[in-house]
Every structure is written in C-alpha cells, then in structure tokens.
Amino acid sequence: MGDRLKLVLLGPPGAGKGTQSVVLSRKYNIPHISTGDILREAVKSSQALGIKAKAFMDRGELVPDEIVTGIVIDRLSKKDAKKGFILDGFPRTLKQARSLDESLKNISSGIDIVIYFETSSKVAIERLSGRRVCKKCGFNYHIKNIPPKKDGICDKCGGELFQRPDDKEETVVNRLKIYEAETKPLIDYYVKKGILKKVSGGLSVDNLFKVLSNIFADAKLV
Ligand code: AMP
Fold it and tell me: 57-110, pLDDT tens digit by residue?
C-alpha cells in the first residue's frame, strides 16, 4: 500500500490540508512534506534559510520561488520519498509547479493526483483565526472544531498551544489575497493535465478522509 501515492494538496490556507496530511501520512506510510512546517522550523532554529524567509512569512507573503523549490527538490530526493509523498503547501505558484514537474522527471514518475480543497474565504478565515498549534509537537487544534481537552494544552504531548503570528486577522486577509492571485491558477494547470480532483474543504476531518480514501482507491493508487 502507498507504493505509488504521489500527492499534492492544493487549497487556500485554512482548507484543512495540514490536518488531512497528518492522517494520510500515517495511513499510507508516506512522508508529509509541508513547506510551511520546514520554513517555520528553520525560523525557530535561526538557520540561514529561516532568517531569509521570516520577513515574508510574517507579512503573509510568499517566500521566493527559488528558495522554496530548492527545499522541496532536496526533500524529495531523500529515500523515504521514493515510494510516495504528500506535498502540502507546495507548489503555490505556476513557476513552482513547472519546476516540480521538471525535477520529478529526474527523480521519479510525476504527481499521481492533485486534490483541490475547495473552501470559501469565510470558512478559511474562521478556521485560521481559531487555529491553535502545539509548540512542542506541532499538532493543530481549533478552538471550536477541534478543541483540546484542556484549554491551551496539547492532548498528545502536554505542550503549550499558541496562535501562529500569521494567523492573526490582518495577515490572514493578505494570505488569502495572495492565494487567489498566485496559487488559484494552479487549479487550471492541473485540470489540463487531467490529474485534479475537487473535494469540499468544508467537510469534517473524518468525512474528508473517507472521501479521499475512496478517490485513491477508485484511481487504483492504493
Ligand atoms: P503554510 O503553513 O503552508 O500556510 O505556510 C506558511 C508561510 O510559509 C506562507 O504564508 C509563506 O510565507 C511560506 N510558504 C510556505 N509554502 C510556500 C511556498 N510553496 N511558496 C512560497 N512560500 C511558502
């Protein structure tokens, strides 16, 4: 199982891509590659990459294509990504998508399927503003939809929950604007390649997982 699942999750911030990636990664035993997580980790540990990326992230802008594409290509060349992977938050521009296609030609066969999480801005804003993340293990909660058992404390590891600085309302609006301008055109790019499947990002975590499992089974990917 999971031998050929090379997956891209596309959709606005707050569509539930990260949450679904965690579940899918566990189920199909393939790595979850989130450029946002990699960049945040680099910021936290003050790596050169993090220092370059931080200002863009704080403003809710995209980190330059060359930087992000380099990170992903490097990550995809690792052994654990040979049997499949979930790309979450990459590609986000047409240039990134073209570079990904080009580099996959050398590493392995191309992307099997792109899942587009169709989500209204209202739902995205509601999800992002209520999101809380564990400082220690990175697990995502939502104050209403996925509340922790104890306020402010992670159920999994006891870590402290915090709000990502870029989830504050001023930045969220900018992130959604940039999504519309830069990332939405990718829908058409992947429709033309015949590998895009649309799902509703408004579904619950469990229901969306069922829908996705059926899509992969129907496409004979698992
Ligand atoms: P995310 O956690 O996916 O919402 O990403 C957080 C931030 O990291 C974004 O707002 C961007 O500043 C940056 N970022 C993540 N992925 C990319 C990407 N593929 N291209 C450019 N910037 C990115």
Answer: 999 999 999 999 999 999 999 999 988 999 999 999 999 999 999 999 876 678
Q: What is the pTM of this model?
A: 0.94
- The pair of structure tokens assigned to 57 is 């992230």
Alpha-carbon distance values, 187 to 52, 105, 116, 201 (Å):
29, 21, 7, 15
Looking at the CA of residue 175, tell me the nearest atom of ligand 1.
Answer: 10
Helix/strand/coil for 20: helix
The residue segments making up the domain with residue 102 are 5-119+183-215
Ligand 1 near 95 CB (within 6 A): no
What CATH number corresponds to the domain at position 23? 3.40.50.300
**Would 141 be classed as within a structural domain?**
no
35 lines ligand 1 (CB under 6 A): yes
Q: Is position 26 annotated as part of the catalytic site? A: no
Q: Is 92 a catalytic residue?
A: yes
Q: Over range 174-198, report the average pLDDT.
A: 97
Is the shortest distance between the CB of 89 and ligand 1 below 6 Å? yes
